[in-house]
Task: structure prediction
Amino acid sequence: MQDIIAFKTYAMCPEEYRLPGVALSFPWIEQAVRSDEEAASLYAAGYTLMTRDQYERYKRANSIDLTVTAAVEESIDFGWYVIREFSKENVLLGITELGMTGQVRENTKEIIEALSVGSLYEAISKSKTITDDKKDAIFITDARLLKYVNMVEDFLEIPRSDTL
Result:
């Protein structure tokens, strides 16, 4: 018998055992097939059958998908971390008492949107090109923008900017 692998994908994994971010096409259970009868039985039980070479290519392709998914989720999580830090600092600086919440939100909208979807390079770019008319003396300053740009650069492991 040819070298055959039988496997079920993560989509067939019971919901309570699934990990967030794992592609449903990722292999979950695998086993070598020893006979035609076993192959027929496994196929009837919902297993996918492939030659070992096909299966190894399939696993590599899905491993890349899993790696990309993890990287995207990590960037999104970090983006939300930066948003939370900026928001907490704004509260401590008195944004609510000064009635500046709406204006600061509007003036940083593009940066916040980029961070919220994990587009960290775009967030850096938007921070560096924010126009002077959107800056103020407390909440949106060059020093604060540079601080957050540096946080993102550190996360991305790229050289820190000295200025905007």
About this structure: Residues 93-156 form one domain. The CA atoms of residues 151 and 157 lie 10 Å apart.
